[in-house]
UniProtKB/TrEMBL annotation, chains A, B:
Domain named CBS: residues: 153-216, 217-273
UniProt name for this protein: Magnesium transporter MgtE
Coiled-coil ranges per UniProt: none
SMART domains found in the cross-reference section: CBS, MgtE_N
CC per GO annotation: plasma membrane
Length: 461, 461
């Protein structure tokens, strides 16, 4: 948006699209003055997505004041762009009539996306505001399971019988009153409404009127089963460069269409979820409160407390060894921490490879072999300087040998564990991004302490 | 693809699009028999992206044999879909004539994507194979910096003077011979080739021939500066639900167009990069060798070795304390590990919020305040059971109090550090995903050991 950088911010590298103070200032000034016209003027140049971001970034009180002052101007698009938690808050603050007007402009897929996470009372308010035909469409979409293609699809379709020619198709489109706002293909169907191919609008536009649609159909054509998981849908769009894809029911009949912008949004969400899960942070947003955020993060820390207790248990087996040689206490976190890092590397690569379907039965054993060899090499490369340094600093060559050996063992185990834990979790139907970290670091901690202290007890005392 | 699950694999939860053994088997059988026709038949039902995945998943030897046998059938699309490292390998194995034919079918943006990472000799071979006009277009794209919109854009354009009507536009399209394979908008330009708006093909198709194009133009219209970073481009497509966007030079003149499928691919790559960087794993793929992978991972482990040494240095300050009370050595990893986990949570949320532009000058201080409060709450919630348990197990109430206090301190520091480190790195122009982890865990390790052992020394001895 604004190109000039504000100088007093802590985030100076603001990209071209960041909402900076230049954008925020007139909005807050209009709010302070209680000037609804100035507020509308300040929001005017902003895209609905940016207005939504702005509403998410201000504090609760400011947001409520903005919603009250902006009031009637809040449209369906802005509501669609809001994050769930903020959206509920804004919807609750809107007058029923404003809400009804806002929702009626939306395509059915956007209405579904808008209301699926609302509570039932709010859902009913919105459903009541819709025209009867739209209401039926939305309720039908809601009857599909969450995260399915059926929830994602749009029911406004542009279809043509497969035997039509270009002229018939164009005349039909010109006669239609209620075309979807965005569409990129004309779907060809057989008499039983089963899609048989599609024609890009570009080809439709550039071909003579007498050309048969079937002759213009794209070579590659894919339908999406209505019950398919939305993650798989996003994968298919990305893998096969789809722009839109017909959705079919169990009898292969056309029930809707999914477009790439929705698939892109899902891909984005799934990635975000994976990153946060890998870090032991549940879903949630920056606008959540302290209490909600604490509730979301404590469980993972509590699990870590238990596994850290396990490490402590291992160490306690060697209390006498440590009492005899306190240097061991100084050095033991090095071995554990190196194992934790190497395990996380291996695990992250594996979790991503599973998610991107790059790790399959065809290459699993080759990749495991590679990870273990990498672990061994890493261990040897790093054990040498570490061992030497320890031997020199503590004047104890055997101590250097022991920590080096323990490091090699732990990095080997880290590599193997980092691979096998996510693969095994996937096999058990548990999201590897969610649970791998705990297991892998427990393994590397326990093995790290055990190898180092055990070897030390055997070799040094 | 194949729905039946192979039973002898370790990854039984194969999704709908995974290449499983059912797909691999006929390919490998054809290869073993040296039967080129059977191989072509086995590849026939596969999308180019799947053939590319298959070539990535087999070992080097099998891949070379497949390329030799499939030979002339390898087309530009398959080459485009291959990962860089494998692509070089395959291109080197192709006959020059096959390569030339393969490349000539591609749009210029795909050619640029194909050759930008190749060595110069391979680049020249491909450039020589292109028609003169395409060659110039590709060379012009390559003159833009890597990762810029200029590299990403396609130069095949569908434009119309802004004063045209629908009939003129359609007649023009029908008369064009060399339209891009995929296009979704007609870009309106003024006499100086500056884009002034665009019309979706759907509107063009459904409007009467006499309608002025300017009357059909989309309300929201954005151009992309040719020097913009590709990450920003992907953000704009996702944020503003763009399907295609005109690219303009410094004088606002139209130089190309970027379509959403390319933006989606970039979004996917940027996410992947962030995930791998957060885990201290550089770019690379499962098909890289042991040596390349070791080289990529060792630096991060080496950095961790240095920071772990720092922790050891802290612990060594308390050798006497530990010698007097060995239980401290047993318990001290708990405090450090909890801090590391809490810091990683806070850091990951912050890194993502910076990447998604959800963290701005408008909400920075509010978010910092929230993180610190969450850290404090987490600390108190977890310090109570930990302190009680330690007091009971070791029969030492003061030891319980010390570990509880140390935990609260470390979780507070972890929360603040997890926020401030990535924000500061961003300010310094360093990718926060790349370097935050090292700093945050160093802080939590050092503070964790120092707080626990320091408090213990002061209170218990």
């Amino acid at each position: 948006m604004a190109d000039d950088q504000s100088t007093d911010t802590m985030l100076p590298e603001e990209g071209d699209y960041e909402l900076d103070r230049e954008v925020m200032r007139p909005v807050l000034a209009a709010l302070a003055a209680g000037d609804a016209a100035a507020l509308t003027a300040a929001f005017e140049p902003l895209h609905a997505a940016d207005i939504a971001d702005l509403l998410e970034q201000v504090d609760d009180e400011t947001r409520h004041a903005l919603v009250r002052l902006y009031g009637r101007e809040i449209d369906g698009e802005i509501l669609s762009e809001l994050k769930d938690s903020i959206r509920e808050d804004v919807i609750a603050a809107l007058e029923p009539q404003v809400l009804a007007d806002a929702v009626r402009e939306l395509e059915t897929d956007d209405v579904v996306d808008l209301i699926e996470d609302l509570d039932e009372a709010q859902q009913d308010t919105i459903l009541d505001a819709l025209e009867a035909s739209d209401r039926v469409a939305v309720e039908q979409s809601l009857s599909y399971p969450e995260y399915s293609a059926g929830r994602l699809m749009q029911r406004e379709l542009v279809v043509a019988p497969e035997h039509w020619d270009v002229g018939q198709a164009i005349d039909h489109l010109r006669a239609q009153e209620d075309l979807p706002e965005q569409f990129y293909h004309m779907i060809l169907v057989d008499p039983r409404m089963r899609p048989t191919g599609y024609v890009t609008l570009g080809r439709l536009l550039s071909a003579p009127r007498a050309t048969r649609l079937a002759d213009l159909a794209e070579e590659s054509f894919r339908t999406i089963p209505v019950m398919q998981d939305e993650g798989e849908v996003a994968y298919a769009f990305n893998q096969y460069h789809l722009i839109s894809a017909p959705v079919v029911d169990a009898d292969d009949r056309l029930v809707g269409v999914i477009t790439i912008d929705d698939a892109m949004a899902i891909l984005d969400e799934e990635h975000e979820e994976d990153i946060l899960r890998l870090a032991g942070v549940g879903e949630g947003s920056l606008s959540d409160g302290v209490f909600a955020t604490t509730l979301r993060r404590v469980p993972w820390l509590a699990v870590n407390l238990v596994t850290a207790g396990l490490s402590a248990l291992v160490i306690s087996q060697f209390e006498e060894t440590i009492a005899a040689l306190v240097a061991l206490a100084v050095l033991m976190p090095i071995v554990a921490s190196m194992g934790g890092n190497a395990g996380t590397q291996s695990m992250t690569v594996t979790v991503r490879a599973i998610a991107t379907k790059d790790l399959t039965s065809a290459n699993l054993w080759r990749v495991i072999r590679r990870e273990v060899l990498v672990g061994l090499h890493n261990g040897i490369v790093l054990a040498l300087p570490l061992g030497l340094l320890v031997a020199l600093i503590f004047g104890a060559p055997m101590l250097g040998a022991v920590i080096g050996a323990a490091l090699v063992i732990n990095l080997l185990v880290a590599a193997a564990g980092g691979m096998l834990v996510p693969v095994a979790l996937e096999k058990l139907g548990v999201d590897p991004a969610l649970a791998s970290g705990v297991f892998v670091t427990t393994i590397t901690d326990v093995v790290g302490f055990y190898a180092f202290l055990g070897l030390a007890g055997a070799m040094l005392l």
